[in-house]
Amino acid sequence: MKALLSAEVEVTVPFHDADPMGVTWHGNYLRYFEVARCALLVKLDFSYRQMEQSGYLWPIVDARVKYVKTSTYEQRLTVQAHLVEFENRLKIEYNILEQENGDVVTKGFTIQVAVDSNKGEMCFVSPPALIERLAKLGICAQD
Q: Residue 49, exposed/middle/buried by CB under 10 A (0-12, 13-18, 19+)?
């Protein structure tokens, strides 16, 4: 799917993320996704604090991870986050690559939906606070 907006961060696998054999524990890749997702949201000018202040919460309702290759302690990785859907939900796809050769280590996606923080109800259309920001970046038209 075509990326509408992308962000990239670098991660060096810390000692506490590795198992006794020095291999990155599988659950940490979701944390690396989170770091890249936050960079993408800041680029969108829609950080988690700004989401909350707009009156909407954006919980993750689905996440998928495909483990392609292992990474190890002190290995330098590039984590890419790509916004691919926004109309009814935020779908962000991820690639984690070895910095040394660009090989894919892990890939996946997350889906977030807007929830009205006052009513506690899930929204079936993304709220104006998100659409306005996307329109400012020329990603969509604002009604």
A: exposed
Those residues with Cβ within 8 angstroms of residue 10's Cβ, 6 or more apart along the chain or in another chain: 76, 77, 78, 79, 99
pTM across the whole model:
0.94
64-98: burial string, b at 16+ Cβ within 10 Å, e else: ebeeeeebebebebbbbbbbeebeebbbbbbbbbe
Task: Yes or no: say if 54 and 129 are a contact pair by the CB < 8 Å rule.
Answer: yes
Q: For residue 83, give the nearest of 93, 75, 73, 74 by alpha carbon.
A: 93
**pLDDT, tens digit, for every residue of 35-94?**
999 999 999 999 999 999 999 999 999 999 999 999 999 999 999 999 999 999 999 999
